[in-house]
Amino acid sequence: MASTLIRTAIIYILLTFTLRLMGKRQIGELDIGDLVSTLLISELAAIPIDDPDIPLLNAIIPILFIFALEILLSTIKNKSTKLKSALDGDECFIIYKGRLLQDALTENRLSLNELLSALRGAGIGDISEVEYAILEQNGTISIMERGKSNLAHPVIIDGDIVKKGASAAGISKEKISRALSEAKLTEGDVFLMTIDDRDKVRIIKKESKK
Predict the structure, then answer these.
(1) Sign of torsion over alpha carbons 124, 137, 101, 201
(2) Residue-wise over 148-169: b if at least 16 C-beta within 10 A, else e?
(3) Torsion angle, CA of 101/106/112/116, rounded to 10 degrees?
(4) CA neighbours within 13 Å on the CB side: how many for 140?
(5) Left, alpha or beta for 184 (phi > 0: left; psi -120 to 50: alpha)?
(6) What digits encode the pLDDT tens for the residues 80-109?
(7) d(CA 154, CA 196)
(8) Distances (CA, A) of 30 to 36, 137, 174, 199
(9) How far apart are CA 96 and CA 102, in angstroms?
């Protein structure tokens, strides 16, 4: 019994340390990669606790490997929007400028009842009150009310043009180039560039590395 308690304490400390370093997001906010890592780690942690004859290292080494892999992938994904999109998927408009996109519901296997439930959860009882409903990468639905929203569409993230964001904002590559030229910047200089529904452009430059 004492051996089981000690093993449990070791695994608990290891998991607490590992998951804290991986981030502080709640389960409902995890993307696909984070969720898979969390499920794998929890399964690996249970093995030596259930069977005292299995060495602790049989769990510790794979857990640390998954942790290292998750950190590596997170770093790479933060540097490559294309890879992040391929691994985690993209956010998707379900309602766009007041129009319900029925094809988007079908493509994302989201029922109308689920959408209406999400609207009610946001305190909205009538779908006609919605300007935007966005299915986020982590599966949650963000709701913006008609007349109260001014969505800033990302068109450049970390030096890369976001084609979907530019398309949603109705902004061409030529317009992006013109805005950058006026700001005397190149795409590579930009950390974030957005254009909102009122056609206002905002640019955040990359910070210089010391």
Answers:
(1) positive
(2) eeebbbbbbbeeebbeebbebb
(3) -60
(4) 11
(5) left
(6) 666 666 666 678 889 998 999 999 899 888
(7) 9
(8) 9, 9, 36, 32
(9) 11
Q: Show the tokens assigned to 167.
A: 């398309």
Q: In order of start, what are the domains of the chain with their CATH numbers? A: 2-87 (no CATH), 92-145 (3.30.240.20), 152-205 (3.30.240.20)
Given CA atoms 28, 30, 31, 35 in this order, what sign does their dihedral have? negative
Structure token digits, residue 192: 């974030």
- The amino acid that residue 189 corresponds to is D
pLDDT band, residue 30 (cuts 50/70/90):
low
pLDDT for residue 119? 94
